[in-house]
Design brief:
By secondary structure, this protein is an alpha/beta fold. The chain contains 11 helices and 10 strands. Helix 2 packs across helix 9, helix 2 packs antiparallel against helix 10 and helix 4 packs across helix 11. The longest helix is centred in the last third of the chain and has 22 residues.
């Protein structure tokens, strides 16, 4: 065989070998569109380490905060659709941004490929013990008899704000919104008697309930959560009420299906990591259970449902 043909054959074989390498064949960037040390960041970093251990390639977390998570998501949307740049963000914020921002630099549904739900933790609805409401139904009756009471949230447009607005729309109760900087402030306002209702995290509410400072009315997942099995879902009173602090992996639109499926399979395997289980338990989180296809359908429904709430509330960020 002539030398030129031999060299061409060798180069072709090498190229074919590289192309055939299973994903990932090089380090993967995982963009977290939130500041370091938050729940989404902790869960993403824990998963990234487990994925590194599972795949043999590095999954490197980079924080790109700003503009309610939209700056980091915009960077991922513009990245090559090859599976080597992913986003790890909470589903509610991503879905809410579709209708909350007037000039979003991407389309929430069209510009991303949902990969996997990496973790989920329910919100907990709390009230003051002095109100003598011990269930969601009790509180609804109380609110109808005393319209205009105040509720707290972690800020305008946040899930803790819009979740209670959703409750208001479904039940017809009249509550006045008081935004705080985070769930800690909102829950503290309930304990201080400045507001009567708020959604908080499990770590931020359960200890106060045990000391008698709060009443846990319900959890925001459709079913009882393993870490607080004694707390009934809000959905027992308001059917279909299912939301919480879900975190998911997203790839740029156009990422090949086999790479999405490979990333999903690696994530499923990573859930067996002992350190991941330990950190998730400490964060009151559980691994996700949706397939990539189920997550895609869920995102479509979430964008619609949160869009309805945002429009009825009249929120818009330019």
């Amino acid at each position: 065989m002539p030398l030129r043909r031999l060299l061409a054959a060798i180069l072709l074989a090498l190229a074919t070998s590289v192309a055939a390498q299973p994903y990932p064949a090089k380090p993967v960037r995982v963009i977290v569109p939130w500041p370091p040390a938050g729940v989404s960041d902790i869960l993403a970093r824990t998963l990234a380490q487990a994925l590194t251990d599972t795949s043999g390639q590095q999954f490197i977390v980079e924080n790109k905060p700003g503009a309610g998570g939209t700056l980091g998501m915009a960077q991922v949307a513009k990245s090559p659709p090859d599976g080597y740049t992913l986003a790890a963000s909470d589903i509610p914020s991503h879905a809410i941004s579709a209708s909350l921002y007037a000039k979003l630099p991407y389309d929430v549904l069209a510009d991303f490929e949902p990969v996997a739900v990496i973790a989920g933790s329910p919100m907990v609805l709390v009230t003051q013990p002095s109100l003598n409401a011990r269930s969601v139904a009790d509180f609804i009756r109380l609110a109808k008899s005393k319209p205009g009471m105040a509720y707290g949230s972690s800020g305008n447009g946040s899930i803790t704000h819009l979740a209670i607005e959703r409750m208001k729309q479904e039940t017809g109760i009249d509550l006045q919104h008081v935004p705080f900087k985070g769930t800690v402030g909102a829950v503290a306002s309930v304990m201080a008697g400045d507001t009567v209702l708020a959604f908080g995290t499990i770590p931020g509410t359960v200890p106060h309930a045990k000391s008698g400072k709060l009443v846990l009315l319900g959890s925001s997942f459709a079913k009882r959560f393993s870490q607080i099995p004694e707390v009934p879902p809000v959905a027992d009173t308001l059917p279909g009420f299912d939301m919480g602090f879900y975190t998911a992996l997203f790839a740029p639109a156009g990422t090949p299906r086999d790479i999405v499926q490979r990333a999903y399979a690696l994530t499923e395997r990573a859930f067996a990591n002992a350190k991941l289980k330990e950190v998730y338990a400490a964060s009151a989180a559980e691994p996700g259970t949706m397939s990539s296809a189920e997550l895609k359908a869920y995102m479509t429904a979430e964008v619609k449902n949160w869009g309805d709430v945002v429009r009825k509330v009249g929120l818009k960020i330019d």
